[in-house]
Amino acid sequence: MWCQLGPVSQTNQQSSNRKRKKRQRAAMGIVEEAHNVRVLGSGQQVLVLAHGFGTDQSVWKHLVPHLVDDYRVIMYDNMGAGTTNPEYFDFERYSTLEGYAYDLLAILEELRVGSCIFVGHSVSGMIGAIAAITRPDLFTKLVMIAASPRYLNDVDYYGGFEQEELEQLFEAIRSNYKAWCSGFAPLAVGGDMDSVAVQEFSRTVFNMRPDIALSVAQTIFQSDLRQMLGLITVPCHILQSVKDLAVPVVVSEYLHQNLGGQSIVEVMSSDGHLPQLSSPEIVNPVLLRHIRYDIAV
């Protein structure tokens, strides 16, 4: 909360207050600059768009024009994205998803957001969930696209990957990042290498510094947030492609069954892990409906 203080009589106290406010503004500016925060639109309600691994805020380019007339849209880049300064990437801070959640909360505080609709793609779905556990008052709903609490298979849980497969993925990133990007992009997006969406994802994932990309991939694919799902009380709208290399459809149902608050699942006819980029004609109407309408009780 921000408040305005009445006049003070001592000159030195006024000077101290001015200096303190100047320091606050400087510190807040650093957060905004570091994450390339952009605010668009003229609506009263705040809507936050958060991207997943290997992309940046440009992944929302097909959706944003449908939002700016009705919402105040906030977009930002997760630290480690190719559009951010790699010198700001703290390997220890971002070894868990909590580091990204703290960034999100800092951005909302900087922009003085009292409440928002949060739309998170892939890992950002879980980042938003962690933030909503800490500050549920800031989130009216979470809209998750292709989110997963765990990618590794386990007893009575199918995440889509065995440990050996993940080790091979990490080794491919480590040994020849450019070659890995070229092979991974069409698999993740769905489609051939000539499609615009595949080329776009190839560009953004290749823009990441290889050592940072490896660290981020390890943090995401080795995460296990199943135990915290029951703590999420903010309403969740779970959207999922019918075919997704990274997140099987059964994961969306697992989220639905284990979240602590109201939730709803919609499986879309889209193909791939980045449907808002590759199939906007399918995804945009679905996304807009879940953004605009709440879960019926």
Give your account of this protein's structure:
The structure is a single chain. With 297 residues, the protein is α/β, with parallel strands linked by helices. Helices cover 42% and strands 15% of the residues. The chain is built from ten helices and seven strands. The protein has helices at 11-34, 98-110, 123-134, 163-175, 177-189, 196-206, 210-221, 249-258, 275-278, 280-292; strands at 38-40, 45-50, 71-76, 116-121, 139-145, 236-243, 263-271. A seven-stranded mixed sheet has the order 1-3-2-4-5-6-7, with helices on both faces. Helix 3 links the parallel strand 4 and strand 5.
Draw up the topology in text:
Blueprint: H1 11-34, E1 38-40, E2 45-50, E3 71-76, H2 98-110, E4 116-121, H3 123-134, E5 139-145, H4 163-175, H5 177-189, H6 196-206, H7 210-221, E6 236-243, H8 249-258, E7 263-271, H9 275-278, H10 280-292
Parallel strand pairs: 2-3, 2-4, 4-5, 5-6, 6-7
Antiparallel strand pairs: 1-3
Helix pairs in contact: 1-2, 2-3, 4-5, 4-7, 5-6
What is the count of helical runs?
10
What's the main sheet like? 7 strands, mixed
Separation of the first and last Cα atoms? 32 Å
Helix and strand sequence: HEEEHEHEHHHHEHEHH
The side-by-side strand order for the widest beta sheet comes to 1-3-2-4-5-6-7
Shape: globular
Structural Rg: 20 Å
Multimeric status of the protein: single chain
Mean of all residue-level pLDDT scores: 91
Which spans have pLDDT < 50 for at least 5 consecutive residues?
1-11, 19-28
Structural class computed from helices and strand pairing? alpha/beta
Q: Work out the number of β strands.
A: 7
- The residue fraction in helices comes out at 40-55%
